[in-house]
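Worked Example 4.2. Read the sequence first, then its structure tokens.
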Amino acid sequence: MIYRLIRMLQAEGINFPGMRLMDYISFRTIISIIFAMVFGLYIAPRIIHRLQRKQIGEEIRNLGLEGQLKKEGTPTMGGIIILLSITVTALLFSDLKNVYVILLLITTICLGSIGFLDDYLKIVKKDKVGLKGKYKIYGQIAVGLIVGLTLCLSGDVTVKQKEYTKTFSEATGTQSKNEGDTYVNVKSTVTTIPFIKNNHFDYAWLSPFKGKARQYGGWVIYILVIIFIITAVSNGTNLTDGMDGLSAGVSAIVGTAIGVLAYLSGNAIYSSYLNICFIPNSGEVVIFLAALVGALISFLWYNTYPAQVFMGDTGSLAIGGILAVAAIVVRTELLLPVLCGIFFMESLSVIIQRLYFKYTKRKYGKGVRIFKMSPLHHHFQIGESEAIIKKPRNPIPEAKIVVRFWITAIILCVIAIITLKIR
């Protein structure tokens, strides 16, 4: 709103010192981080107090983990703090006419609402199941469909590519395709693929059709990929939310890395130099991610060990969705297995654990576990076990596990950014 107000004043010829600073992505990014952080720190104690007063506390199942039962009754649904900080900051400092900001706001509100309903049913209504898993998936698919169709149909969603000209050689009688110096906005399913020198990949290449139908088939494939990515990253973030500060800290690191990639993709000079997709107007994604990072930092103030509040599904589902949509928008979704490596490993550990346990139980009559416990972060909290992977022999304190996961996330994000030059 502040951004739009200043633009309106500028259009009317009204100027005052410092007004033009709002035109710079870098300035609004810094302001967004600071405002989201301060706003989050301001509202957090009030929301935590209200949650305590209404006795909206976490119910803990005794899984034999060290210090687990001490968390009984800790206020949950703290994701409200994160979502409010993000939304208010984005409304104030981002361009609300930007299609990417609109998509990120829709993702935040929709997935946050799904998570809120799940937490409400579990904590307030005392329903142990909460919102059934299939309904969560349906909601994530719906959000993915909205994002995919918007990217497909909106005229504001384009990729800037160099214009090619065809020349005819009289000597050889053949045509050649030459790269020009001018850029044109095109609707495209092109994305950036890591580790490859000619690193542009087009989903239309996977289409079984030819001619114009090939591009339509590419859009269908692209939309299906978007749905899968949003669902996977959202659920991966949710699974990672099992220790004090783990999901929030990792998400802040990943959000920062995607913000760097978004800034590069929205800059004509940097994108051309690095040979990545130039996405016009994607700089606003940086503002939104700055709000996310600022909100997560403020939340970590109360969520680090020992946590005073948990984010619950209200926060984790929305955060995962934001990270996924932001990566999709700037065409770096194929980097997500590296960027979101922690979320990927957490999800994979759950899938492997369940499949192998069911397989061995069906074949031998007794289920065998690969990990001591899944998701992966709980594996390190348990000492001696009959699981296949027995290390570490001694349980590791929760705070140490969280910090080590943060360090791993930083390393993975650095690797992802380095891939821009390693091809």
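Now turn to a second chain, presented in exactly the same format:
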Amino acid sequence: MTVPTWDVELDCVGLLCPLPVLKARKRLAAMAAGQILCVRATDAMARIDLPHFCGQAGHDYLEARDAGPVTLHLIRVG
């Protein structure tokens, strides 16, 4: 599956758990269903926390893409 370009980008570089999840939750609440959020994060725990949050909140965690020291987490609003 090819994931389309995202609609909104959220910069969480340098933030530690749980801040990337908290910021993503706030941003996702302001987005329309079906839109894609890209969370840029450097905290390794985001690879665990964001998919877990999405499962509980009804969003689709699409993938994690490595972009150097930053990981791009793609989430489709549920």
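Notes for the reader: Strands lie at 8-12, 36-41, 60-67, 70-76. The first helix runs from residue 19 to 29.
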